[in-house]
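Morning!

This is the sequence you dropped in the shared folder:
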Amino acid sequence: MQYLMIRYKLKNGVKHSEFENWVRTSDYPQMRGLSRVSSFNTYRTDALLMGEGVPSQDYFEIFAINDLTGFTSEDMPGDIVQSVMGEFMNWVDNPEFTIANLVE
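The structure's back. Tokens below.
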């Protein structure tokens, strides 16, 4: 299993409530429907545990992907991911996509 982690801030003027509604009604159903995505969750950052100020990102997402090669070669260029990504990019600024592996 490999993990795709995405960190991002919302674009100026985007309301958290509207974005989160899109996540629940469009993003989750489509991306969770892909056979190579074992799990997918979006997390809103609310505060720093230590120090003052605000978190450097508004949200992060974690996908558990059971076949990263198939996901990148078949799912990513496919209609579902391309449609979701097009919508996603309307909401967010400069997302950072990172592949991670569990340290065991």
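Headline: The chain has a mean pLDDT of 97.

More detail when I'm at my desk.
O.
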